[in-house]
Design brief:
The structure is a homodimer. In chain A, about 75% of the residues lie in helices and about 0% in strands. The first copy, chain A, is mainly α and about 450 residues long. The interface between A and B is large, with 88 and 88 residues.
């Protein structure tokens, strides 16, 4: 009996210690002295110690939230998002730090770099050969799964937000387009079904709809910027933006085929430390910058960079025993990506949910997000494939939907009375976050169930 | 013969391609259109595409410079520094991008975070047990090697810069204190002498003089800030700052012994991805912030965090097949640390070297930096140890000297006519960079030679 009692007691001691440490941290955080001290300019080139504290706390919130959701059998990203929402709700109780965190340029930049690294990773996981191999089913599934939610989302937004300009409605439609391939891939791997026909179709379609989603984003965002500058938007402009996006992707693919192999063969001759990860990230950032320079979102460039880099380019690094790029990027993204999701959660204003019409909008938006992707199953060519599973596997929106909503929050449209109206305001942002949370939460159980059923 | 001709031709093609790509990049960079486009606000939360381009180019410069120096048998860090100096010299030709890069807050923040990660890594490599084991020789060597260059540097600064306040002279003395353990360790490993008595003494002493150097920095920087606020500096204040620094280190060690094991045992129970690297970095940033909050440089906290974290704390992670913290940090530091060194190089104003007195100052500063560390050899206890090798092994200043100079560039003192005088101005900064370059360049050959001689 004694040892049995001893265990909980030692755990209680630990818990006490941890709680004390946490309490001290919170007190330090909230005390005006510490706040004043952390507001001081740092002795080192002006990096505010505030930023260090913020990153540390954001990482802790992200990992605790992520862990809780993983324990519940959910993706970690949801926990990070919910952790951010809870952290953000502290501002309702007058915690000034939360407002400072929301406004900090350095933390925001780190989050942005995190998203760029994330899309680079998604691009690295996809490859062009695979996309060709899965063929017509994936292309049809992806097209239907992009078109249906896009128009459904547009319609819902037009119904619920009649005062917003049409381009705002179109933008909300765009946030529903892209499936988050990561969540579905993880569920399929967990249940050992990654090698099935359904898995190939879903993953291929998810890659294609990423590309389509990014194209739609480029066109809609371009149109919104043109409208924001007061210029009327002709169909020719839309066509021009679409053409530019396609030209960029084709250009990136050509660079990938004819320039990248030489670059990385040259880099492989280098002996200094960290050449591989530096070259890969430099390449990613260059394409992200180039995308920005031609008027696209930097994430389009990052995704393209990942898409055109194949492991074959790093052969010589791997031969001499170095890690793969994806392995080297893992700790970098483990540090930066959660900052993005916690910040996205921070942006959610819980007060918006006190309004019934916002909750209604969120519910209907979520419903059409799920419904829209069920149209996918019509695109499956051939027999013996579990169509329901394909439709369900395309549901989760995750990071891409959030990234789109985040971009929308930085775009403006001319309003009715000449004022600038944000394309995605706090209420709409909250509704999109709810859509992302719900679509991501329902997928794992639904997909597991559908894959067990007979086709 | 044909195949022989073919090879150079294929190489020539590659070179041509690469040169064309580089030329295009440079043209894009310098052309006013691209510059205007890159100055645009990004569609994503305002992360300027300029930052992405800058990081990519800084990484490329760092890796090319580093590689060149590695090929010449020199440490990569020197190449990064020289690459930065050359990049900075472009501003003499009116390249506006360089000035923008110098002024960019996000890039500066990334460099600072890089230094914090670097000092964390240095701390991780050192450990308290080792410091106790090498005993008196290391302690004596370290003390002499800190005291002698400190006073020599102070004296030289007082002679060459008579107009500057005394605290400025003291600060320059402080930049000469800390040996860069990394460079010496690498040379000793390269020549297979890492297991010798000399190596233990040097590495132990280098760790101790890191701690002493950071203490001196804390005291001098504290004194300068007090003087900057107009307050007279009493001896009691100096004692107080010293006490605070020591209390911080002791506190960190206690946290390391009694809190950290529980924290990481808790973290080891977590199943989500990236827990280890996130917890380690969060811990490092918390201590860096805490150091800042009590008035010390954040790097002191980062070093302390590394010092108290031992691989034993990560046992459970390693058991289940995860990488070690130092391995996980490697790609993170490979991306961030070069940004710091290139930025340090960028700060060097080559025009300062047109003035003979600055070159003279740099030469004498370098001379006393080398001479000061030769006093070390007197501290070696016992016989059969190559005293000369110990003295030579302590010469390189590397990152710590640069970090100190960088901090000095952000500190101000009240000048003679009431104006604010930077503690380390452009000319002095250039002299310190020359000192760092030369001490780091002479060490590898000198140390190799001394270790081959008989004791």
């Amino acid at each position: 009996m004694k040892t049995r009692v001893a265990r909980p007691r030692s755990r209680a001691t630990k818990t006490l210690l941890l709680t004390t440490a946490a309490a001290l941290a919170v007190v330090a955080l909230l005390s005006p002295t510490a706040s004043a001290a952390s507001g001081d300019e740092s002795p080192v080139h002006g990096l505010a110690p505030f930023v260090l504290l913020s990153i540390a706390l954001v990482l802790l919130v992200a990992k605790l939230g992520g862990e809780l959701f993983v324990k519940l059998g959910q993706p970690a990203v949801l926990g990070e998002l919910v952790g951010g929402i809870l952290l953000g709700s502290l501002s309702l109780f007058g915690v000034a730090w939360v407002e400072e965190l929301r406004a900090d340029a350095v933390v925001a930049a780190l989050a942005e770099i995190g998203v760029i690294i994330l899309l680079f990773e998604v691009g690295l996981e996809s490859n062009l050969g695979e996309m060709k191999a899965v063929g017509w089913s994936s292309l049809l599934v992806a097209t239907l799964g992009v078109v249906a939610p896009f128009f459904l989302g547009w319609g819902v937004a037009a119904y619920f937000l009649p005062d917003e300009p049409t381009l705002g409605h179109v933008f909300i439609g765009a946030t529903l387009c892209a499936t988050s391939v990561g969540i579905t891939a993880r569920v399929l791997r967990d249940i050992g079904k990654l090698q099935t026909r359904e898995a190939s179709i879903i993953l291929g379609a998810a890659v294609i709809d990423d590309v389509m989603g990014l194209l739609i984003l480029a066109v809609v965002a371009g149109a919104i910027r043109a409208a924001g500058e007061g210029g009327a938007l002709a169909l020719i402009d839309v066509a021009l933006i679409a053409l530019k996006s396609i030209a960029f992707l084709v250009g990136a693919i050509l660079v990938g085929r004819y320039v990248v192999p030489h670059l990385f063969r040259g880099a492989a001759r280098m002996q200094s430390r960290g050449v591989l990860v530096s070259s890969a990230v430099a390449f990613c950032f260059l394409l992200a910058w180039a995308a920005g320079a031609v008027g696209l979102a930097p994430i389009v460039g990052a995704f393209a960079a990942g898409l055109v880099l194949d492991e074959i380019h790093f052969e010589e690094f791997v031969v001499r025993g170095e890690q793969r790029v994806s392995e080297l990027l893992a700790p970098v993204s483990a540090l930066l990506v959660p900052i993005f999701f916690v910040l996205m959660g921070l942006k959610v204003d819980l007060r918006a949910f006190a309004r019934v019409e916002i909750l209604g909008f969120a519910a209907v938006l979520t419903f059409v997000a799920i419904l829209g992707k069920q149209v996918c199953s019509l695109g499956v060519v051939g027999r013996g494939v579990k169509r329901l599973a394909v439709g369900l596997g395309m549901i989760p929106r995750g990071e891409v939907g959030l990234i789109f909503a985040g971009i929308g929050a930085t775009l403006w449209l001319p309003g009715a009375n000449g004022a600038r109206v944000p394309v995605v305001d706090a209420a709409t942002f909250g509704a999109v976050v709810i859509m992302v949370l719900v679509t991501t939460l329902v997928t794992p159980p639904a997909l597991k169930w559908a894959m067990k059923e007979k086709g």
